[in-house]
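Quiz preparation item.
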């Protein structure tokens, strides 16, 4: 500002006048050209009818033209380029500093009168520093703002960033051209186009937002071929391949790979082995299939509902030059180790963990069964997984009264009033003693399937093996090895001391001890 005032002072000294017509050259204050009432440091007004509108704060030059006339600034250059130059620094005139990132280096703001007041910056073209400037970094970018209808706030619409990327609708273009707030449309430096919103031609979408072609499939029919050296090429026939979304399919006939005479809808015929998908019922003659075509081929044939079947999917393997035939399943580790998993031999034997099963089911390894074993259609028992204890054989039995009143460890006796049922013991030396409510049985025998509703009212009664058992010291302390019998305490066993009453009343031998009161110890169940 001070430098500008000095320049104006020199200009006034040159003319050596303080005012001429409508021109004002004061020694201090504003300078007016065409006006005696300048309202900016330099005011140029060719409209003699009125004073120009007051400028915004910080305006140095305020210009106006006569009504209905254009206001223009014209730069003339001779032998060089005319330049309109903007320069900016931080700090002050006497102590300038480097501009910081985001500082506007220059802007052209377009505004107008709205009937009440003058506005500025409703459309803007500006440049700004990208980084804080140094002697080696003068990075900058350009941006363009416009104001939407019904609004007073201008918004950035386009940017050319410091790398030369152009963004429309985004302030961070990631490609040579990026369109949309999330760069939905891009053109990279190699000219490749990418779009996340699909592609439409003539108002019709041909590629959807997932990048899948959804345009017409008529393009699969070839056009008339061009004239060749040997004569014109005839029209290309319709392609047997169809397109549905991202799926390609064969419209008619069979597909052969390695063969020109496919025997099913898909026939893969390498030198050895292969795959045949029949597409028809696998009756003994294979319907339209020729069995001799797969003899000695080592092919796998898949189909449906071979005669005598029940709607199942069928797999048939030709053993080729092999001996046993059948199916084999293997696991191959990343280092090449081969592990045999399952072998379905051609003689009907099944091997798990072995490639040479000797019986209908041959398992080489441990077996765990969660369920029942059936022999001749009769359920023989149900296994229970090992869980820290449970080394006993138990049977699932019905009890008298509310099943929820029974607890593991209860001593059980035959209910004389309800044959086939059991209840808690409640007298000493009972010869009705039959077992103990098992905590975690190792094996459970049943008269019916576990899914039978009757099983819900049953409990597992241990009859052999080691079982946690409720005991009482009412007949003296219990030591390891003592024979145990029923007691007068309901559901509890005690030490048997009356030799004349032991026959038929012994539950088992104590594997633990109890000095007084009641408790639970491990008992080896040996009914005698």
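Solution:
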């Amino acid at each position: 500002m001070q430098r500008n005032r000095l320049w104006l002072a020199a200009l006034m000294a040159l003319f050596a006048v303080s005012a001429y017509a409508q021109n004002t050259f004061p020694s201090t204050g504003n300078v007016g050209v065409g006006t005696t009432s300048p309202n900016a440091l330099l005011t140029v007004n060719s409209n003699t009818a009125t004073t120009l509108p007051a400028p915004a704060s910080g305006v140095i030059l305020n210009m106006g033209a006569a009504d209905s006339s254009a206001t223009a600034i014209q730069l003339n250059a001779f032998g060089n380029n005319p330049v309109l130059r903007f320069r900016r620094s931080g700090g002050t005139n006497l102590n300038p500093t480097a501009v910081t990132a985001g500082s506007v280096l220059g802007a052209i703001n377009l505004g107008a009168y709205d009937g009440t007041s003058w506005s500025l910056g409703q459309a803007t073209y500006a440049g700004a520093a990208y980084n804080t400037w140094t002697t080696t970094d003068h990075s900058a970018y350009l941006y363009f703002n416009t104001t939407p209808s019904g609004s007073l706030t201008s918004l950035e619409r386009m940017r050319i960033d410091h790398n030369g990327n152009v963004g429309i609708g985004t302030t961070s273009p990631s490609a040579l051209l990026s369109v949309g707030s999330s760069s939905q449309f891009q053109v990279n430096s190699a000219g490749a186009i990418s779009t996340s919103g699909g592609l439409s031609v003539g108002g019709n979408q041909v590629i959807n937002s997932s990048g899948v072609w959804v345009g017409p499939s008529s393009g699969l029919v070839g056009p008339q071929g061009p004239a060749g050296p040997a004569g014109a090429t005839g029209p290309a026939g319709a392609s047997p391949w169809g397109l549905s979304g991202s799926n390609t399919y064969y419209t008619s006939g069979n597909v052969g790979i390695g063969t020109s005479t496919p025997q099913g809808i898909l026939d893969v015929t390498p030198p050895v082995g292969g795959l045949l998908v029949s597409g028809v019922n696998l009756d003994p003659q294979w319907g339209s299939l020729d069995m001799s075509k797969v003899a000695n081929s080592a092919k796998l044939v898949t189909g449906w509902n071979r005669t005598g079947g029940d709607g199942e999917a069928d797999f048939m393997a030709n053993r080729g030059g092999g001996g046993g035939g059948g199916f084999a399943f293997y696991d191959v580790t990343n280092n090449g180790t081969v592990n045999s998993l399952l072998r379905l031999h051609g003689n009907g034997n099944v091997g798990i963990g072995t490639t040479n099963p000797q019986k209908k089911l041959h398992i080489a390894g441990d077996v765990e069964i969660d369920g029942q074993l059936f022999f001749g259609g009769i359920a023989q028992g149900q296994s229970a997984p090992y869980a820290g204890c449970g080394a006993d054989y138990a049977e699932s039995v019905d009890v008298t009264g509310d099943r929820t009143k029974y607890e593991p460890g209860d001593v059980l006796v035959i209910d004389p009033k309800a044959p086939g049922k059991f209840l808690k013991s409640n007298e000493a030396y009972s010869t009705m003693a039959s077992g103990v409510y098992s905590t975690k049985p190792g094996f459970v025998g049943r008269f019916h399937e576990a899914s039978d509703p009757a099983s819900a009212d049953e409990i597992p009664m241990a009859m052999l093996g080691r079982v946690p058992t409720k005991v009482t010291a009412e007949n003296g302390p219990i030591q390891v090895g003592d024979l145990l019998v029923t007691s007068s305490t309901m559901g509890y066993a005690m030490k048997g001391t009356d030799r004349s009453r032991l026959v038929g009343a012994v539950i088992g031998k104590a594997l633990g001890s109890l000095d007084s009161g009641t408790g639970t110890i491990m008992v080896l169940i040996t009914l005698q």
